[in-house]
Every structure is written in C-alpha cells, then in structure tokens.
Amino acid sequence: MDRPFEDAEEFAGALPARGALLGIDPGEKTIGIAICDAGWRIASPLIGLKKAKFKENGPAIAKICADNAVAGLVIGLPLNMDGTGGPKAQAARAFARNLLGLLNLPILLWDERLSTVAVTRAMIAADTSRKKRAEIVDKVAASYILQGAIDRLKAFG
C-alpha cells in the first residue's frame, strides 16, 4: 500500500473477509487505541499510549497489531467543522504514512469530527469523574471512531 485510504469502500476492498481492526485516535498527549473483533461487530477501548517520538510509538503499535492479528487500521482524521484539514489533520496523515512504512496493512483515515466531544459528554452523563475521563478519553474516542468505521464497512461486507 502506498497511501492511506480516505474512502471506506476502497479500504473494505483491501481488507481480508475477516480480521480484527485497530482504531487509533492520535491525541496531543496520548494515542488512544481500540480494537474490534474479527467479524467487525463491536469496537472496544484497548489502551492509551503516551505520545512520544514515532520511533517509540510506531513499534509499540506494530506489536499490538501482531499480538492481535490485526488486518487493518482506522486512524481518526481531525477535520475542521467545514471539512477542511488543518495542522492536526496534516499530523494524522503524516502519522498514517509513517505507519504504512512500518506495517504492511491497509489504513483508513476516518473523519473524527466531534468524537472526543461526544465521548466526553457521554462520560459526563455517566457521572465519570474528571480524573477518570482524562485517563480514558483517548482510548474511548478511538473506540468511537472505530465503531463508526466498522458500522460503515458493514455496508460493503
């Protein structure tokens, strides 16, 4: 693969019929990681990696992929509300390109506008403490992003 996909149907065509998918929310301090089952039914938060240089985070993500027989990755693409890409979207694209150089897996960049906001609101509604929200928001947001993508992928599978 020479580039990340931005079209879910093209991404679906590059995936095997079954296989776990990894969802990634590349936050500013933490990289949230979620995983779904091989049948693409439900996404679950997995871990939050402390953001560091790619030479540290990349191999950690590669190990997670190998340990979980991951077939593809879904990376949150933080677009502006008008659909344009700013510095955060450029950073997510660069992160995806770096992962492509490390992994031989298809990668989908998935519009994640308001995912962290939606997750935070849900946690507040569930009376989750501010401290606990700070600890888990990125991996829960990764799960939210991944669930949105797998719900869309079901239309092509």
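(ticket continues) Second input and output from the same batch:
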Amino acid sequence: MTIEDLIEEFDDLGDWADQCEVLIDMGRDLSNMSDNLKTEDTKVHGCQSNVWMVAEVKSEPLRIELTADSDAMLVRGLLSVVLMVYSNRSPQEILETDVRDIFSRLGLDRHLSPARKNGLSGMVTRVRAIAAEAVGLQS
C-alpha cells in the first residue's frame, strides 16, 4: 500500500473509529523488531508509549531503510504510516517531504490526542535527523 492508497482509504471510510481500526490492523502487520535492537539509543523520546527506531543507510543509490516498533498497537500503526512515507527514500527526499500535509490529509492532526501528536512528531524528528546526518556523510 502506498501513502496515497491509505489517504484514499481513509477518505472512503470517513469515520475516525473505522480509520483507527485500519491503523491498528496496520500495527498488527508491522514486523516485530528484534529485542536486541530495543535499546536506549534506539528509543524515540517524546512518545507516550515505548517506541524504537533503527535506520540503515544504504548506498548506490543513497537511501535510508527504517525499522521501528512500539509496545502499543495504535502507535505501531502510526509507525507503519511513518515508514510508508519515509523508508527506502533518499535523505534528500525525506528532508523535502511535507509530512504535515500527509498527516492532515489522513486526519491525524484532528483525531490524535496531544500526547500521540507529540509522539508522532518525535518519530518524524528522529527520521529527519537521520536523513540530515546521512546528507552530511555524503558530502
């Protein structure tokens, strides 16, 4: 599924409860991260739930592959959205992506609690920092 497919599905559903179920289903489908990767260094701070994110910078062509996990099913669904938007993209693509527009089109800006929005922002901040570092490595 692409982010555009997800936006279309959310538009078709219309109801937040149904959209939330889709996010939870996406969370169930997210691959589990190995426990040895769940460390303080990989933890995303600012999240209400435990969230871990690992990035692998691939070359030829330069792109970032993300792996993430959480102990909360809805958050795992939000991580799925973040991975859908950012994983396997070049650092430049990541830095140029207007994720606020995507989240708005999904209605996340209206329906998530302030704590969940803060956690989502922490996830995005982590990905953007990884991308900025990768661009610095490329120079």
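Agent notes: The chain has seven helices and two strands. The chain has a mean pLDDT of 92. Closing as not reproducible unless the customer responds.
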